[in-house]
Amino acid sequence: MQDFLEFRSISKGYPGVQALRDVSFAVRKGAVHGLMGENGAGKSTLIRVLSGDQSADHGEIRIDGEVQHYRSVRDAFHAGVIVIHQELQLVPELTVAENLWLGHFPGKGGVIDRRKLIGVVSEKLAEIGIDVDPTTKVASLSIGERQMVEIAKAVMVDARVIALDEPTSSLSSRESEILFALIDRLRAKGTVILYVSHRLDEIFRLCDSLTVLRDGKLAAHHPDISEVTRDQIISEMVGREIANIWGWRGRSFGAERLRIENIAGPKLRVPLSFSVRRGEIVGFFGLIGAGRSEMARLVYGADTRSQGSVSVDGAAVPADSPPKSIRAGIVLCPEDRKFDGIVQGRSIEENMTISSRRHFSPFGIINPKKESELAEKFIAKLRVRTPSRRQDIVNLSGGNQQKVILGRWLSEEGIKVLIIDEPTRGIDVGAKSEIYEILYGLAEQGMAIVVISSELPEVMGITDRIIVMCEGRLAADLPRAEFDERRILAAALPDIKNSKDIPFTQVQ
Amino acid sequence: MTSLKKILLGEQGLVVIFAVAFAIVSLTVPNFLSERNMLGLLQSVVTIGIIACTMMFCLASRDFDLSVGSTVAFSGMVAVMASNVSGSILVGLLAAVLCGAVVGTINGVVIARFRINALITTLATMQIVRGFALIASDGRAVGINDPGFYQLALSRFLGIPTPIWVMGLFFIVFGFVLNRTVFGKNTLAIGGNPEASRLAGVDVARMRIWIFALQGIVCAVAGVLLASRITSGQPNAATGLELSVISACVLGGVSLAGGRAAMTGVIVGVLIMGIAENVMNLLNIQAFYQYVVRGLILLLAVLLDNLRSVAGRQRV
Amino acid sequence: MTSLKKILLGEQGLVVIFAVAFAIVSLTVPNFLSERNMLGLLQSVVTIGIIACTMMFCLASRDFDLSVGSTVAFSGMVAVMASNVSGSILVGLLAAVLCGAVVGTINGVVIARFRINALITTLATMQIVRGFALIASDGRAVGINDPGFYQLALSRFLGIPTPIWVMGLFFIVFGFVLNRTVFGKNTLAIGGNPEASRLAGVDVARMRIWIFALQGIVCAVAGVLLASRITSGQPNAATGLELSVISACVLGGVSLAGGRAAMTGVIVGVLIMGIAENVMNLLNIQAFYQYVVRGLILLLAVLLDNLRSVAGRQRV
Amino acid sequence: ADVKIGFIVKQPEEPWFQDEWKFADAAAKEKGFTLVKIGAEDGEKVQSAIDNLGAQGAQGFIVCTPDVKLGPGIVAKAAANDLKLMTVDDRLVNADGSPIEDVPHMGISATKIGEAVGQAIVDEIKKRGWDMKEVGAIRVSYDQLPTAVDRVEGALSVLKANGFPEANIFDAPQAKTDTEAALNASTIVLNKNAGIKKWVAVGLNDEAVLGAVRATESVGIAADSVIGVGIGGAESAINEFKKPAATGFFGTVIISPKRHGYETALNMYDWIANDKEPEKLILTAGQLALRDNYEAVRKELGIE
Ligand SMILES: Nc1ncnc2c1ncn2[C@@H]1O[C@H](COP(=O)(O)OP(=O)(O)OP(=O)(O)O)[C@@H](O)[C@H]1O
Ligand SMILES: Nc1ncnc2c1ncn2[C@@H]1O[C@H](COP(=O)(O)OP(=O)(O)OP(=O)(O)O)[C@@H](O)[C@H]1O
Ligand SMILES: O[C@@H]1[C@@H](O)[C@@H](O)CO[C@H]1O
Ligand SMILES: [Mg+2]
Ligand SMILES: [Mg+2]
């Protein structure tokens, strides 16, 4: 078949960074094309150029043989290009339906046709199997639900090209399946799909062809994905072999470190109890909305608990104050990096040391030398791609931002309990294994670690024990020896009998 | 939640609180509920009320406009001068509207195209426009030649003075625009998440320019009505108006962080401001204490409204 | 980029632009560069300059304070009245600082704990505090009994009046606090993303209260110096000060959206405001035209600064 | 050397001060000195303005201060800058409230001018044959400004002395000193006392009284049932007299900016150039202007 979407020598630079250099490749009609690469390799930049949001310094885009001259997002839209960006682009105060129509509201003479506004959206949502009410405000949706709304943008009009930038990073396997089914349907209609992900399983599950970017350059182009292997892709991306991503190794556990008794809060009505030992890494698995993040926030005091107690090494932790929790030895690395993680407008260094700087600031006066040393250390260790530690964090790629937030907590001293919510969301394979390695090191020093993840392979790959949550309750608690995909998924699903279309598809 | 609580803390909470406060005031303050006082009260909030309509859009889109007071004074002056010179009130009106539109458009272009902070830009135009008003009139009030001009404010329809009708009309029109039109939704969208709106293809800069232009036009209407009410164009009119209008909007639940606005809220906000002044004067509260009372009412109103929304929402 | 461009558009761009403007003014405006005029100029910006130090923190943490003018007037009055009554200037000073701290703390608590919009809260306290000042003095200025009080402003060290030294000291101290201390960095973090900062262990509410309390104290210092300079406590002093101070900060690159601030920028902003006034009077520009010129200078300064930062950044 | 004289006023936007400046300019042209006009709305601005004049090499200045209590500070600042000092309109006072007699002053007594307003109203009430018990008085007040209090109280004292019942005097506090604020405050007074059909109005200036008059019109009280007497006599008042039909704005007490502007500047010049010290105190009087004689009065005062 013929090439439908073509990138011809695209280059794009930002001050201090050449994000794309002379990138050229083409995608056939009706193909799902994967785009992979390390954090900061230039994937999102390429997609932004395609979306008309950013213009390339050089090069051109052709769709169906036609050179595109669009100068705005609107032009791209009219050329039949729809882009789902890496960061959620929703307006919290508007309803789901309004968000989906934003920029192209239906109606005459500027007056919105409300029936069409809601009707079309209900139809589309039902068609792809997303269960949210079109008239609810986006502000009241969970991240996962928001991501699904974002994805629904892809079917609001008949597009010729759809680009999805890490759409599954905040979805669990169940929602991901909805997306995959949707992609299959679009492919059948002949739509070209550009698909960015760090998850190799998905790439193999969905894509027909693949391009790998590295340092803004084209590292490899595979017109037929069946001709490549995982290891090959990894080494094209990272430039080295990674034998075993998980790298789990056995450890001996000490005394009980974290003890949770009957905690409950506004969004978690059923009291929860569990404990974690020194040196133990406990994974929390569940579907979106299972309440894992709520649990973590209650433990940390980010939300106020209505009852129950949290103690570290036998000492009680106050109920409602992150600063006190940190001093008691608990930290939480939040799941929503944009709203709860990064401090916009401030440098990488400041973002990294915001909590730990008190350790090298006698009388509140910061020692700048120590600060920069610490920042440099974790920039190197986590391989953050940036021209300087003084770079504003918003200028980093999504994955690199996530690394900085991780660095914030890994650089803390005297921490006894580390809770990480979706630690590797949007992080490339190479960095992932570095992060796991750091976690093992911390555990070996006696830290109690809680990992919340929606990626089952990850939870199974790196933890010593898995607690499954379902609808705000603890549904299972399995030691590593008893890890079993079917059992975990079964425990995570609310009610097996009622749902006919449970995605029991195996996740490799 | 009991149902009483539900009503108080729900979407319409401020309206309910207001209704209760209104009832109490009506019962306890003598003369308050008389028809004459009600009309007087409404007339006293016409300027604030009219401008609050567009200020609501301005704030909802995450902008800010300090130049409204000067624009009111300037366009009022222009209306009087132009109709004196031309002998036609209509020409005066058109000239005023044109001036308002020009000021607003300049604000909008500077803010949206040159990307200059709205506070600074409108603080600058506030001074420049006031300067023009003073220069044009040599700092003196300009008298109206044609007594027909007074009729704009003095005439009545069904016993209610025209300015009140105009304000009511504006409330209805802008309420409709906010909730039912593309313009309104886009305004909320660019305030709620400018980046997302831009990426969805909303022409954010154009929207912002339109909003400011509209604000200028609306200020001109208010300016003309004011000039007619005080039977002259006064270069010093409406100083400090900007803060009153913004307060009324914020009281009415418009978020300064953008993205949130409701016409009913703003109407209530405007009325609260008006009633506070009215009641203080009816009760003969001494001028210096009025400052204190005014401040306390402002605080109390947002505090109540806030209790409501804290209970309603959890995380933002 | 050529190196000239680099300097102009770099971090210190505003400073460079300012230096050039200063040089031009010095060469073209007679009497400008005289020692007397320089000292007069610096003295005229003491109030704005001192308060800009803490306003910078307030804005950087995404807050807003409209009550500074009233607090200056009120604490100045208190200083005068307390020292008249007690016969001791020191008691007067302490009373003023205490009052300032109380006003600031109340602002902070209401805003940070009850989560009420800062604009509305400080608009309310602005009126309440002004009301208190008027009530306490019955609306009239209060004279100073002990001429020693005048010495606060009149005394000189190395030929330079004390208030200028105080302002310089504040610049240095707050510059240091902003860049080199946990307090300063946390302020900037809160402004950048309050929720993320809270989760990162910053006690956001406490920080905000501290910032407002500090602002109140600093206003008191400014109020005392002002009362000493004008040799009386005046209930109507410093009206409109808030907008001047905020303008100076924004001119100096402090972002109203929080998270961005620099002491050098703020100093330049303060000086630009002062020089503009000074030069207009030296050049005998007519009062009405001064409005226009003031507005244009404000616009021009941010426009230039903006060209610079647009060139520097890409996305916001 | 060249003579340079400063003229500092507290409210540069006010027509009154525009006129003072205009007449001072006339003196400057006549004698060939430079006049530097500076507006200073508060104590701090006055201080800066004096420094500024010192820096420019002026030899003296005339000031209408925002607050008379600034006296000692202004005197000290003038001395520090080696500037001769005269005051106009408002006389400086010491910390204890006594006038600073050393500083030459030309002005009007706020109380006196208020009394002139009161007298005009009393005369007109009598002329119209109203029964004072049936008449209400609107006191448009702006108590934040000491001069305003003195003027209004001056007017009311005359009313009361002539038997005007105190219970019929109603306070209408304006939130700002513009017509709209006065209009809104007065409307409330009228509505609260709907039973009273005849009204008189006093206020700090013409704009305040105009607001009260507009309020009577808006509630439908006939023009011949209203007697408003303002202070100032600038355009706002003249516009009122020019209207085709008489309004409730009965008259205004005009004070002459000419003498204040022209003579003070001239005296200062003589002081500097010829070492001729001015008189310590000159008090000018206001003059009542009505619809049918305002042109004559203005001519008499040298305005126009
Ligand atoms: N506005 C900007 N200013 C400066 N540098 C930028 C900007 N946007 C992106 N970059 C840089 O461009 C490079 C490519 O970023 P991009 O977002 O395309 O990476 P990515 O491949 O999508 O990475 P990730 O997997 O982490 O999402 C990165 O080094 C990033 O820091
Ligand atoms: N901002 C919010 N407002 C209202 N409800 C919310 C909000 N965020 C989450 N919820 C609700 O709280 C519950 C649990 O939330 P959440 O989705 O974060 O759980 P989770 O198990 O951490 O899942 P994940 O982290 O995979 O999204 C869900 O019912 C969700 O709808
Ligand atoms: O303030 C007044 C001014 O308005 C003018 O009337 C002259 O006297 C001054 O005291
Ligand atoms: Mg990316
Ligand atoms: Mg979660």
Structure commentary:
The complex is a heterotetramer, with one copy of chain A (508 residues), two copies of chain B (316 residues) and one copy of chain D (304 residues). By secondary structure, chain A is an alpha/beta fold. Chain A folds into two domains: 3-240, 3-Layer(aba) Sandwich (Rossmann fold), CATH 3.40.50; 255-492, Rossmann fold (3-Layer(aba) Sandwich). Chain A contains 17 helices and 22 strands. In chain A, strands 6-9-10-3-11-12 form a six-stranded mixed beta sheet, sandwiched between helices. In chain A, strand 9, helix 6 and strand 10 (192-196) form a beta-alpha-beta unit. The longest helix of chain A has 16 residues, at 173-188. The two termini of chain A are 30 Å apart. The relative contact order of chain A is 0.12. The model of chain A is unreliable at 497-508 (pLDDT under 50). By secondary structure, chain B is an all-alpha fold. Helix content of chain B is 74%, strand content 3%. Chain B has helices at residues 3-9, 13-28, 35-44, 46-60, 68-86, 89-112, 118-137, 151-154, 162-180, 182-192, 194-199, 204-229, 241-251, 263-282, 287-312, and strands spanning 142-143, 156-157, 160-161, 232-233. In chain B, strands 1-4 form a two-stranded antiparallel ribbon. The two termini of chain B are 21 Å apart. Chain D is elongated. Chain D is an alpha/beta fold and 304 residues long. In chain D, strand 8 (198-202), helix 7 (206-218) and strand 9 (226-232) form a beta-alpha-beta unit. Chain D is built from ten helices and twelve strands. The relative contact order of chain D is 0.14. Chain D has helices at 15-31, 43-56, 71-80, 110-128, 146-161, 179-192, 206-218, 235-242, 257-274, 294-301, and strands at residues 4-9, 34-39, 60-63, 84-89, 105-107, 135-141, 169-173, 198-202, 226-232, 249-254, 281-283, 287-290. Chain B binds chain C through residues 66, 110, 114-117, 119-121, 123-128, 130-132, 134-135, 139, 243, 246-247, 250-251, 256, 287-292, 294-296, 298-299, 302-303, 306, 310, 316, and chain C through 66, 110, 114-117, 119-121, 123-128, 130-132, 134-135, 138-139, 195, 243, 246-247, 250-251, 256, 287-292, 294-296, 298-299, 302-303, 306, 310. The complex binds adenosine-5'-triphosphate (ATP) (2 copies), alpha-L-arabinopyranose (ARA) and magnesium ion (2 copies). One adenosine-5'-triphosphate (ATP) is lined by residues 140, 142-144, 172, 267, 286, 288-294, 335, 454 of chain A.
